[in-house]
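[09:14] KT: can someone run the structure on this one? pasting the chain below
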Amino acid sequence: MTKKETFFNYILEGNTTKGDFIPVGAAMLDGETVTGAHVKVPLKTMNRHGLIAGATGTGKTKSLQVLAENLSNKGIPILLMDIKGDLSGLAQPSPGHAKIDERHEKIGLPFEAKAFPVEILTLSEQNGVRLRATISEFGPVLLSRILDLTETQSGIVAVIFQYCDDNKLPLLDLKDFKKILQYATQEGKAEFTEAYGRISTSSTGAILRKIVELEQQGADLFFGETSFDTQDLLRVDENGRGYINIIRLTDIQDRPKLFSTFMLSLLAEIYSTFPEQGDSDRPELIMFIDEAHLIFDEASKALLSQIESIVKLIRSKGVGLYFVTQSPTDVPEAVLGQLGLKIQHALRAFTAKDRKAIKLTAQNYPDSAYYDTEDILTSLGIGEALVSALDEKGRPTPLAATMMRAPMSRMDVLTDSELKTLLSESKLVKKYNEDIDRESAYELLNKKIKEAEAEEAKEKAKKEQEAIKKAESKRKTSSSRRRSSTRMNPIVKVLTSATFIRSVFGILTKVMKK
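[09:31] RB: done, structure tokens below
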């Protein structure tokens, strides 16, 4: 057998699957596509997470698009983090091109242009389905980790949540949480000290500063109602295709704290609400996180630890996480070791640092008798990638330099009019985009403070009235005493009267004359 025939059989044997799968392209040998040597990703192992990496302009986004389209066709819902704003074109069919036809002829797969069911979501004031969560849904542990609090500060947050639970005070948004922090060390200080112990003003001040930092990145838009129900990510259309939910993040690229906060809360909510899947033949939901370094670069140690834990555990819920970034080194090793599917586009060796990164990247892939991995990483063309997946028994498939198939949808963004039409037809926009500010901790505490102030004012007025009455009574008593002291009895009156004095004086005068 020739080298090409041996390679063909090697690829086919390594990509044999009894269950459903996605063909992502055809393997390449010595720079040439081996038609029909299809590289497949079994659906059964797609909840084992993955990585799409490569230098800018090498085709990462198109590979993401291909995977999302084919998963949707299989009835599997998708969640995409669209940082660059170039994925909304999934809602429109590809216009086609001669180069696409040429590529698919080499691969040996048919090409069909089609649109996919898309829902546009947003964390900010951009058009789309508003994503929100309440402070209560975060809970004290997750909120403390997001704010990167000390152990003492985290303890205070736990006490705050307990107080709100005990007193039926809903914590919905950041103004609720800020208000209760203020109340704990001011108006409600005595109440807190008696029931929960003394709370330090320096600690609450530090927590407030962390909250203000989060607010400055736009978190006040994220916290509140109506909370997004993660079950709405699992919808399929009337044709049985999974919805592709695209979160528009183009305006929060410079706010990584908000992005990390949202991601962690979403993963935690999915993990707590999705049922265990066991050894399922297909995933329930696949999430693609574009520009994944934004999560990891700004994350605290506590936050990274939480992400690593969720990555390890969430696959049991049938959820696959796919990180899209320029280099595998952008992803922490503890997370990288959990990723089953790796699609590695070309890397560029411009500097010594680049060459070192390439060497490290090559070590993440299985050895191959057909490739020098370090060399091929720098020679891959646009739309070509090294692919290694997990087969149905959890073993890595043969490493294959792959010509990736082209997206079936438009490789460009929607126009303003197309986006407006898409949103006008959305059921979720109507469900989640109404602003609700029901009575919660902020309003209830203000009411409680006003009632306490009114009661205090009433008590003060009562005491003032009592003081006035007491003073008036005292004045009357004193006046009465003065009047009684100047009132003469009849004998004194007679003795001191002018007539009596004149009579006595006259008698005395007569006696003296005699």
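[09:33] KT: thanks! The domain at 3-124+243-252+273-288+298-414 is CATH 3.40.50.300 (Rossmann fold).
[09:34] RB: yep, looked fine to me
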